Amino acid sequence: MGYKSGIEIGKNFIIFFKTMMTFLPLVFILIGLFEVWVKQEVIERHLGDQSGILGYFWALLLAGTAVGGLYVAFPVASSLYKKGARISTIFTYIGAAAVCRVPMTLFEASYLGMKFTFIRLMVAIPLIIFSSILFEKYLKDKKFSINNED
User: Fold this and answer.
1) Contact between residue 74 and residue 36 where contact means Cβ atoms under 8 Å apart
2) Cα 43 to Cα 77: distance, rounded to the nearest angstrom
3) Is 120 exposed, middle or buried (0-12, 13-18, 19+ CB in 10 A)?
4) CA distances from 115 to 123, 125, 142 (A)
5) pLDDT per residue over 80-113, tens digit each?
6) What is the pTM of this model?
């Protein structure tokens, strides 16, 4: 039978682990700086309850420029929540961070073509926003809240 598959899995794990250890500490430092430098009023104004449709635009823009995928998106989403971002904009940010990041989109376009990428984004973005709004309404009906014990 052999151990070739197991050895390959181990090698891939080590490569992945090294990659994560090279950029995750820097990302968490940046998230810490975000927590300190970005004022709560700024987040409330641009991503909070009164932000309206522009809040979704800012969430998409923030997610599109993010690196690290969901490893980074969840800590940033927690920080946004603590600073007063609306739940639906946070869900939009997480969804967009999963499917609309610029580096990933450019990579996809180079392999699958601009037409495919454009259609995928034009379908995905409205669905992300629509489902985020539905999730927010559902959670508000359930009186959802997160305990932010630091």
Assistant:
1) no
2) 12
3) middle
4) 12, 16, 41
5) 999 999 999 999 999 999 998 888 899 999 999 9
6) 0.82
User: Residues near 85 by Cβ (< 8 Å), separated by ≥ 6?
Assistant: 43, 44, 47, 48, 55, 93
CB atoms within 10 A of CB 3: 9
Interatomic CA distance for residues 93 and 103, integer angstroms: 16
What is the Cα–Cα distance from 107 to 114, expressed in whole angstroms? 10
CA Rg value for the chain: 18
Q: Are 59 and 92 in contact (CB under 8 A)?
A: yes
Residue 133 and residue 88 in contact, taking contact as beta carbons nearer than 8 Å: yes
Residue with tokens 């609309």: 100
CA distance 136 to 123: 20
Tokens of 128: 């992300």
